[in-house]
Amino acid sequence: MKQAFSERISSALTLRKQAGLTRARTVIEQGNQSRLSVDGKSYLNFSGNDYLGLAGSQELTQAWQLGLSLYGSGSGASPLVTGYSKPHADLESQLAEWLGFDCAVLFNSGFSANQAILFSLLEKGDQVVQDKLNHASLMEAGILSPASMKRFKHNDVAHLDKLLKASICNPSLVVTEGVFSMDGDLSPLSELSRVTKENNAWFMVDDAHGCGVLGSHGRGCCDLYQITPDILVVTFGKAFGLSGAAVLCNVECGDYLSQFARHHVYSTAMPPAQAHALSHALSMIQQQEWRRKKLDELSQQFESELRSSVGVITTQTPIKPIIIGDSETAMALSYSLKEKGMWTTAIRPPTVPLGTARLRVTLSANHSEKDIKLLTQAITELR
User: Looking at 88, 135, 159, 320, which residue is catalytic?
Assistant: First the structure.
């Protein structure tokens, strides 16, 4: 009955509102940069993922504009029809060479890349073993795939080893993130890689928040730990300042994904102008080391000025969580900071576990020392 859907929707919205967990979209008027404007008021933005400050870069904007003039607005088809052009091929080659893989396959988002891999690779009788705090795209794909899914305790190498040894006869895919987006902590990739190899399993790393920021010339977490997983996912909506994703792997796996990954086969390819701009973003990441250096300096300043504050988590990344606890207090603190001109989003369940509502502060190379000082002083006063 049609009424069942209406009742289901109404009930779900009511329950979420009663729990104080309702979320709303906010119209950003002048782009998501280090300063943003909402309803005519300007805020310092500490809630974006534009870690290197490329999203608002005029240099990158001009590269995209050049791509538009050369290749038009859209790709016009899926990659296996007529949507795959020279900018796509060039970007894939540049990524593969930079990150040390045989090939790369482009996707329109990190969400679709993660789901495409698990859906196309896993079969009945396989198992996928994931870090408990992996992204929703990975968890959902694991649950919906034909394989059985197990979760190992966050960054717990011994627990992973135990789970793999318990199912040694089943083909296994181990999946982790390089940087965990809500806590800003790193995965122990060297140890995870070792245990995975010892148990004859495949190893996949989603480095959405590490690529461009960590490692030599921004190559990411795998470079930082000097490991090469079987599959690496990098996304372009964070340090690259744009959108989309790529899967890095060997040639045969790349061919397999091109044939069987439905998110790739049946989706219109990203615009070639975007691929052209992404190639330029990659060059900026490789060459403009000052962006990572400045980000490190701002990170050290932030943690130094909040060293004595309760709930502030020290990280090696631009993600700086401040654990508040209950959702109402986190929302109140977020609101108070907005009153002072600083946009710091409160993250609540179900995105994070119950009792760990937080402010997820993120830094950008476009921030200044003065910006950080204003934020840390405000947090200190309000806490």
Answer: 135
Closest CA to 248 of 151, 178, 145: 178
Is 209 tagged catalytic? yes
Residue-wise pLDDT tens digits, 239-272: 999 999 999 999 999 999 999 999 999 999 999 9
Question: Is residue 181 annotated as a catalytic residue, yes or no?
Answer: yes
Q: Does 135 participate in catalysis according to the annotation?
A: yes
Q: Let me know if 206 is a catalytic residue.
A: yes
Annotated catalytic, 150?
no
Distance CA 196, CA 131 (A): 13
pLDDT (tens digit, 9 = 90+) per residue, 60-71? 999 999 999 999
159 is catalytic: no
Q: Which of 209, 263, 276, 320 is catalytic?
A: 209
User: Residue 50 forms beta bridges with which residues?
Assistant: none
Given a contact cutoff of 8 angstroms between Cβ atoms, the answer to whether 201 and 172 are in contact is yes
Among candidate residues 126, 161, 183, 206, the one labeled active-site is 206
Is residue 85 among the annotated active site residues? no
Among the options 34, 47, 49, 334, which is catalytic?
49
Instruction: Say if pTM beats, i.e. exceeds, 0.70.
Output: yes
Rounded to an integer, what distance in angstroms lies between the CA atom of residue 43 and that of residue 25? 16
Counting Cα atoms < 13 Å in the Cβ hemisphere of 330 gives 25
